[in-house]
Design goal:
Blueprint: H1 3-21, H2 25-41, E1 49-50, E2 54-56, E3 62-68, E4 71-76, E5 79-85, H3 95-103, E6 109-115, E7 118-128, E8 131-138, E9 141-148, H4 152-165, E10 167-168
Antiparallel strand pairs: 1-2, 2-10, 3-4, 4-5, 5-9, 6-7, 7-8, 8-9
Helix pairs in contact: 2-4
Signal peptide: 1-25
Organism: Cytobacillus spartinae
Protein name: DUF4367 domain-containing protein
Amino acid sequence: MSKHLKAVIGLITALLLLSGCSASFDEEQDAAKLAVEEAFDEEPIKPNKDSEVINFHIPFGFEIEEETPNNVLLKNGSKNYILFYNQHEGSDSQVVYNSTVQQNEKYDVNETFTKDKKFGYILIRKLDDDLNSLTVGIGGVKLTTEIKTRNLASEAEIMMDIVNSVKLQQ
């Protein structure tokens, strides 16, 4: 076999392997929906962070950057997250969901879940080819970030675990 033919076969093989490694938006959004629904159905993780109004669990690597009324700004490396809560809305409330959807009615993914008097949701809006706005929530609590397409499913699951762990102080 000539060197040129080997080089062409090698290049084609490399391109096929690389294209197989990058997940499409459709595949990742489906995986994200499934991951969020599964995390929504699980028993909440015990809170490891306390504030005056809420207690919640944040995974290793996450840190609280700032707390303001109704918001906790979280950071994990270079990624920023906004944890919003309305202490007047229970876990079955649709108020935060409805107001979020009304702010931007063009979501690529808008899925809701209900179980045991809990109302959960995932919202994904494609911002550009590889960047998405991701919001997950339960009742009066939601968590939002911007995330690359290839990380949608894993981030969505972690975010729902955080939201599911929120306990409002009475």
